[in-house]
Amino acid sequence: MNTKKPYPYQQAYQQICELLLSYADKNEKSQALAHTIAHKSLLMNHLYEDMGLSSRQEMNTLMQEHFPRLAAQKPDNIRWKKYLYDTIGHVAPACDLCHDYDNCFDCRILQ
Question: Which GO BP terms sit in this record (predicted)?
Fold first, then answer.
C-alpha cells in the first residue's frame, strides 16, 4: 500500500503544464520547456531566476519564442509566474513568502 502523501502542488504543476502545452509551438523543445517551466514555477524565486535566466526580459523572449500565442495574451504589467497561476486560478507557492508586493500587480495575498 502506498502511504506517500501526494505532492501538494501536483495539481498546479499539471495545470500549468497543460496550459503551456496547449500554447506550445509543436516542437520537442517547446514541449519539453513546458514541463520545465511548470516545475520551476513551484519554486520560491522569481520564475526567470529559477529558470536560470538573467532578467525578466530574457523570460519574455523565451516565452515569446516558444509560446507566442500565450505571450501575446499576457498583459505587459504582469509577471510570468503570476500570470500563469492567475490563468489556472491558483496563487503561486512562492507568493506566501514574497515581500515584493509593491512590484506585484493585483496580488491576491494582500486581498
Answer: nitrogen fixation
- The structure's pTM equals 0.82
As a whole number of angstroms, the distance between CA 8 and CA 101 comes to 24
Q: What gap in Å lies between CA 82 and CA 95, rounded to an integer?
A: 9
Give CA–CA dist 46/24, Å, rounded: 21
Torsion of CA 53, 56, 62, 65, to 10 degrees: -160
Give per-residue pLDDT as tens, 71-101.
999 999 888 998 999 899 888 877 766 666 5
Q: Quote the CA–CA distance of 5 and 74 in Å, as a whole number.
A: 34
> Residue 7: pLDDT band by 50, 70, 90 thresholds?
very low
Indicate the domain borders of the chain. Answer: 10-110
